[in-house]
Amino acid sequence: MHSLNIFSKSKIVWESGLSFSRLVTNGIGKQIYRGYAKRDDDGCRRACVDIPPDVDPVCPQPCERHKKKKEGILHKIKLKIIEGGTNFGTPFRRLQCKEKVCKEMEVPKAKALPAPAKKVLSLPPPRPGVQVSILGANTNLGQYIALLLKQCSCIKKLRLYEAADTQCTNCSRNLCEVVEDLRHIDTNCVVQAYSYARNELERCLQNSNIVLMLDSACLNMNMSLENRFNYQAPIVKRYADVIAKECPDAFIIVCTSPIDCMVPLIAETLKETGWYNPRKLLGSLAVPEMRASTLAARALCLEPCYVHVPCVGGTEGSSLVPLFSKALEYFDFSEQNTDLMTQTVRRAPITVGRCDGQCIKSAELSEAHALAGLVTKVAWALLCKDIPRVSGFVEIDASEVISPARFIANPVEINGRGIVKSLGIPKMKDLEIRLMDLALNELFVKQEMVQNWYCKYCSSSGSLDAYQVQFFTPKTLERFEDCAYATL
User: Fold this and answer.
1) H helix and E strand count, the chain
2) Collapsed DSSP state (helix, strand, coil) of residue 426
3) How far apart are CA 122 and CA 108, in angstroms?
4) How many CA atoms lie within 13 A of 476 on its CB side?
5) Which of helix, strand or coil describes residue 421?
6) Choosing a second label site near 24 at 20 to 30 A (CA), which of 10, 83, 196, 482?
């Protein structure tokens, strides 16, 4: 019993000694021991600071303190004391925010897209176009030209005028039937018919942009020059008087034979009425140019699109001078071949007419192709879409060409204002110069014949309306933009 007491007392002494030695060691060596905690779920001993906070099942995202920033150093020190740090408090202090209940995120309902607005298709702008009047369209040539021009996109209205003599040939159809037939073609061009019997020449020419004059149906190419001129001059004179009243600003293309005489006659008529503009009067050389270019292309074994033969001087007979030296660059025909081809081109109308004895005038298909191409070029030029270069029988400037004739065929350029530039007679070979001298003398004789006929039979001043005599004074190159009656 005594030995047990001694053993228990010695055990207490040794435990107190060990505890005292630990206190001494802590005081002297200043050694700090970290406390450990044991969790119930596992046996791993970790520091409190290493234990991650429990994840909130409601709000798994970490919470942040709302800091209110204030100026001043004391506030910063206070925040450090609260949060803890190396200098203030213990580094193992753990701050936790109050439990917050996260609200369920409201998913915005998908809004229905507005109905797409229907785009109102605007009407396309009106297509620019010109109005063409064909005088003498009752012939086969006029009907073929109307068929080709109906397919041209730059022509918005096509007016066909039936001349006085409609029963002179058995080859022509009634103009009304032709117009009804042309209206079935699916183009925007509007075709209208006008007749001499109902005095509709004024209505046909009203506000026209291009006027195409064709031959009469009873004209025969075997007739002499004086007979053809005497037959066609009153008709052309009537056309010119109405043009001065209804469409003085129209571009006039003269295809009435003889063209060398009709162009000066129209010019004299328009000068007396005060509506003459040399920029808007052109005699056609499309047909002889086409024939000369085709003949030169066949002689050279080339495609006709690569060959162009300009024509100068007059428009038919011995006054016509095709310049075969300009057909192809760096190539010249011999003088014998040039003379032979020139005579072939000059005699082409009579040669083709003799091939068909039933019709008075033949070769309408080729002539229609050439004239329709000329009208199309002029129409695009008036719309300012192109500046074509064509050969035309026009009035020349006396300072440019020294000639007894005032009207000569030469290459010209056309734009929206009409004929803007006359290129004159190009450089020619010796044979072409000799032919040109003879052509100028013949042109002078023809123009003298026109002047004498006009002074003898015509005076346009008596046929003018009282409105024109009262309000308009004849002045060359001065005109209104539209019909003379537009401002009355």
Assistant:
1) 13, 13
2) coil
3) 40
4) 7
5) strand
6) 10
Per the model's pLDDT, the better-predicted residue between 105 and 51 turns out to be 105
Structure tokens at 334: 């011999």
Check if the beta carbon of residue 394 is closer than 8 Å to that of residue 281. Answer: yes
Token digits for 465? 């309306």
Is 295 exposed, middle or buried, given 0-12, 13-18 or 19+ CB atoms closer than 10 A? buried
Evaluate whether 232 touches 256 at the Cβ level (below 8 Å): yes
Q: Is the dihedral of CA 69, 70, 72, 77 positive or negative?
A: negative
- Tell me the two tokens of residue 268: 């004299």
Of 141, 322, 163, the residue nearest 235 (C-alpha): 163
Q: Is the pTM of this model over 0.85?
A: no
End-to-end Cα spacing for the chain? 158
d(CA 440, CA 96): 119
Sign of the Cα pseudo-torsion (335, 340, 341, 345, in order): positive
Asked if omega into 258 is within 30° of 0 (cis), the reply is: yes
What would the two tokens of residue 367 be? Answer: 């002539």
Q: 129 in the Ramachandran plot: left (φ > 0), alpha (ψ -120 to 50) or beta?
A: beta
> Which token pair is 418?
């009409």
For 247, other C-beta atoms within 10 Å of its C-beta total 25
- What does the mean pLDDT of the chain come to? 78
Q: Which among 250, 279, 240, 254 has a CA at the least distance from the CA of 481? A: 250
As a whole number of angstroms, the distance between CA 146 and CA 159 comes to 9
Task: Give the residue-averaged pLDDT of 333-351.
Answer: 90
- Is residue 429 within 8 Å of residue 325, measured between CB atoms? yes
How does DSSP classify residue 256? S
Query: Per-residue DSSP letters for 173-234?
Result: PPHHHHHHHHTTS-SS-EEEEEETTTT-HHHHHTT-SEEEE---TT--TTS-HHHHHHHHHH
Chain length of the chain = 488
Cβ pair 256, 262 in contact under 8 A = yes
Give the residue from 273, 267, 241 showing the smallest Cα distance to 254. Answer: 267
Beta carbons within 8 Å of 395's beta carbon, 6+ residues apart: 267, 278, 281, 406, 407
